[in-house]
Design brief:
single chain; seven-stranded antiparallel sheet; four-stranded antiparallel sheet; globular; 11 strands
Amino acid sequence: MSSFPNVTVDAKANIYFDGKVVSHTVRFQDGSKKTLGLIYPGKFHFGTAAPERMEIIAGSCVVVLDGSADTLVLEAGSFFDVAGNSGFTITVADDICEYICSFLSA
């Protein structure tokens, strides 16, 4: 999806890892939310409270879900799901990885 009609965007950025991961929250009329962000090169671990879907919309990354030894290689147009109360490690080798994070129902 390249645009979201009829939403509210939080102007204040969510900044992680000294600015190497930056996102903005998008709020929908039905109360749901997503974050749109950039991940600069590096290796980062994120914890999740609620289940999430991470869609890669530009660039590429490598992901390892907590509790798994499997490595997911993701390119633009792909996604991965993360369980609630879990986490993942994401590595971006070069350039910038752009993503949409959707918060899923438990």
